[in-house]
Amino acid sequence: MGEFSEPERELLRRYCTNVDRRAFALRGLPEVVRGALFSRYSRTEKSLRRVLLDEFLHEPAAGLDLEMGGADRLVDAERAEDFYQRVLVGYGDDSVAELAGAHVAVERVSNLAAKALEDSRVGISPLEKSTRYVRFDRPDQDGRFAYHRGPELAQAAYEPAMDALFRTYSELVTPLTNRVREAHPREPEESERAWKSATRARALDLLRGLLPAATLTNLGLYGNGRAFEYLLTKLAASELPECRGLAGELHAELAEVIPAFIRRGLDERYGAPAAAYLAEVRRRVAAQAPRAGRQRPEAGPEVRLVEHDAEAERRVVAAALFPHCDLPLAELGGADVDTEAVLRALLDGRANRRHRAPRALEHAHYTFEITANFGAYRDLQRHRMLSQERQLLGTGLGYDVPPDLAVHGMDGRFRDAIERAAEAHRAMETTLGPALAQYAVPLAFRLRWYFRASLREVYHLCELRTTAQGHPDYRHVAQEMFKRVRDVHPRLAAYARFVDMGPGDELERRASERRIDRKLAELGG
Ligand SMILES: Cc1cc2nc3c(=O)[nH]c(=O)nc-3n(C[C@H](O)[C@H](O)[C@H](O)COP(=O)(O)OP(=O)(O)OC[C@H]3O[C@@H](n4cnc5c(N)ncnc54)[C@H](O)[C@@H]3O)c2cc1C
Question: Of 341, 314, 343, which is closest to residue 330 (Cα–Cα)?
Fold first, then answer.
């Protein structure tokens, strides 16, 4: 007889994708059980299936109701919670909180809160409603435009200015879409769906600068307990009451599904003091920060390379050779090697951007300071494999008007609504302070941020974000980033062959929509 009796095999089949092969997946078990099961791996000589049988499925304290059609129901959550805490405590390292995850939807939050929710480097995958495919002028449940209106934003100019932005957006969407369609008529062999979708996306792209940071959006986060714990702590430390409120709400919902894995996020022992510390550090550093204290001329969009490593080539080459030789890294750095030949061996022959640049490229680093509109920032902030911080969103650096709006004669209304929001922002800055005043700032306004990225991430970001279907604003930033790197390290940059430095398509989505059509046709739909 094998490791399991027939009744055991039968039970296991419900929760494991197979009962006799060495690789198998778990299914139909609550997250907490999967996480706790894995945490036992490092403390037992038993197989996982044996642990599942002996310590969970046959253990009343685990609270699994096998009679109710599966272990996907916990019968006694409180008793079970103690049980899982005991299992997890036995492991003893914080990383155990990475062993269970949750899908969380967060709806009707401002773009400022969305950025805060998406600001995790490791362990959380966000997905957010797109400004390119979704109209943002649909009224909220109460019939008003959907933007954040907390009691903290009591300022007479705020709501009229926000309403004006949304009204302008709403009134321009249809005529602008029609103009775009006239300028880009449907081509032979282009489906009605693809053409309508590409032209609408173009109109929404042109108008998104009107949307204020207060615009409500929806997002989904999939992440593990440890990453959520830290996110909760950071939200609780936020300057924005909206984010602090979200910390409590998110915690309550996560506690419904992975309570044992997010305990410390806001607790009295770890989470709350850590949040207080983060807030205190922010206040202390802000008190030390110099301010220009005078009106500067508006800055145009720009990407500056603030810092790079003169030794980058040598470091990349040494790192590339390291796994293949028996010398210490320091000696390799000084070795007499043919740099050109090593780089060719390392990087030549990439057939598309999914042939990822190798890890050796992480030995070259670049710091970029970027001034661009909040719309572009909003998209690029999503790159997690770099260090980034932004300055407060304001109106001092001016705003961008997409040139095509003037072509269609709609730039005047765009500017009027934007200027009105800028006035509201200035009034709020004085009465409510610069952090809260950010809500009033439309996506067209520029802000300053930095990215510190390795060359590997530069390859990834620039190749991905310069594709012809990308939004022109972030395409421009990615192209400029790449130019700066190419200027200082031409040999290292030479293999980023899929950075598209071209002018882009006039109708960015056209080619992508046709590809979607072809794929749909292949799928028979
Ligand atoms: C054309 C286009 C349309 C988009 N539309 C939307 C949209 O509608 N809604 C929206 O929310 N976002 C959208 N995005 C943003 C997109 O979902 C990504 O968040 C963004 O492009 C960052 O890319 P990345 O994750 O590859 O980069 P990075 O975060 O810089 O990561 C670099 C690489 O590291 C790896 N990696 C990083 N984190 C993880 C992880 N947790 N798990 C596994 N691998 C990881 C991946 O290989 C990744 O490519 C869009 C992006 C593009 C280019």
Answer: 314
What are the DSSP calls for 245-292, one per residue? HHHHHHHHHHHHH-GGGSGGGS-TTTHHHHHHHHHHHHHHHHHH----
Tokens of 364: 């070259």
pTM of the predicted protein model = 0.93
Residue 31 vs residues 5, 42, 493: alpha-carbon distances, Å: 26, 18, 44
Beta-strand relationship, 446-454 and 216-224? unpaired
Q: In degrees, to the nearest 5, what angle opens at C-alpha 82 toward C-alphas 80 and 84?
A: 70
Of the candidates 271, 262, 211, the residue with the CA atom closest to the CA atom of residue 104: 262
Give the pLDDT of the chain (525 residues) as one tens digit per residue.
688 999 999 999 999 999 999 999 999 888 888 888 998 888 899 999 999 999 999 888 887 766 655 555 554 556 667 777 777 777 777 888 899 999 999 999 999 999 999 999 999 999 999 999 999 999 988 899 999 999 999 999 999 999 999 999 999 999 999 999 999 999 888 899 999 999 999 999 999 999 999 999 999 999 999 999 999 999 999 999 999 999 999 999 999 888 888 988 999 999 999 999 999 999 999 999 998 765 666 768 899 999 999 999 999 999 999 999 999 988 887 878 999 999 999 999 999 999 999 999 999 999 999 999 999 999 999 999 999 999 999 999 999 999 999 999 999 999 999 999 999 999 999 999 999 999 999 999 999 999 999 999 999 999 999 999 899 999 999 999 999 999 999 999 999 999 999 987 777 777 778 788 888 888 875
Of 222, 352, 385, 452, the residue with max ligand 1 atoms within 8 A of its CB, to mutate for a pocket test, comes to 385
CB-based burial, 378-402: b 16+ in 10 Å, e otherwise: bbbbebbebebeeeebbbbbbbbbb
* Residues contacting ligand 1 via CB (< 6 Å): 125-128, 130, 382-385, 457, 460, 464, 470
Q: What would the DSSP string read from start to end of 57-79?
A: IT-GGG-B-TTTTSTTSBS-HHH
Q: What is the distance in A from the centroid of ligand 1 to the CA of 290?
A: 35
Best residue among 219, 379, 382 to mutate for probing ligand 1's pocket (most ligand atoms within 8 Å of CB) is 382
**Distance of CA 231 to CAs 251, 254, 366, Å?**
10, 12, 27
Relative to beta strand 216-224, strand 124-128 is: antiparallel
